[in-house]
Amino acid sequence: MDDWQRPLAEDGPTPLWFQIAERLRHAVESGTFAPGETLPSEAQLNRHFGVSRATSRAALNELESAGLIVRRSGKGSIVLRKRVDQPAEEMAGFSEDMRRRGLTPSYRVLEIGHEPATAEAAEALELAPGTAVFRSHRLLLADGEPIGTAMSWLPPRLFRTQPYPTSEELETGSLYAWLRVNCGVTVKRAREYIEATSTESSLAEKLGVRKGFPLLVARRQSFDEQDKPAECVILSFRSDRYRFHLEVRR
């Protein structure tokens, strides 16, 4: 018998639903139930533990609220991959962030080009509206699985003596590392706004989620060592794979 299946402590102070939730949480974290696998249904939990439907539902709801599973009609409670926690007060490139968590980062270029900046990008880069800038749109992957996208705009001053990065260069390494090596530019600080949105059809297919799936969006204005705008980027992350962490003090 797996550890999660052992009898509940019915006479103890801990609610039955919480005991079941903790058993299943440990089973997920230990790998008894791997990402993509389905947990026992409410009916199976009812029969095994001899509890009511409300108790088993409360246990599974707790796991869903914690981001460990997603409950889908007709498919059951599916175990999710562990989320990446990004400290909101700390700035790091995607490659650095993933490697620090034991994940292998990779990229897939969706679009690159030289085009007029959007109003948002022009304002962030402190350029006149319509100024031509370099833009890249990349899919961000962790251990080969899509986790988000990055839409970046770079100001023309960075390319006075340096050609734009190629698709091959952007698929094989960090943009911040490329800027440091090829342009002598180091990103030192950023101003970032975080919001929530839903996934449009074209992006949903690339991220492997359904249309309307919730996304976390970070709009970042980055600055170099001279405190000049070096990048405007919109980062869109799957909410089931990524979250921002913020520690506050009073």
Automatic annotation (TrEMBL):
CDD domains documented for this protein: WHTH_GntR
Return one GO MF term: DNA binding
Q: Looking at the keywords, is ATP-binding present?
A: no
Q: Which UniProt keywords apply?
A: DNA-binding, Transcription, Transcription regulation
One Pfam family, short name: GntR
Give the top-rank taxon of the lineage listed in the UniProt record for this protein: Bacteria
Q: Which residues form the HTH gntR-type domain?
A: 14-82
GO biological process, alphabetically ordered = negative regulation of DNA-templated transcription
Q: Which PANTHER family does this entry report, sorted A to Z?
A: MANNOSYL-D-GLYCERATE TRANSPORT/METABOLISM SYSTEM REPRESSOR MNGR-RELATED, MANNOSYL-D-GLYCERATE TRANSPORT_METABOLISM SYSTEM REPRESSOR MNGR-RELATED
Please state what the protein is called: Transcriptional regulator, GntR family
Organism, as annotated: Tranquillimonas alkanivorans
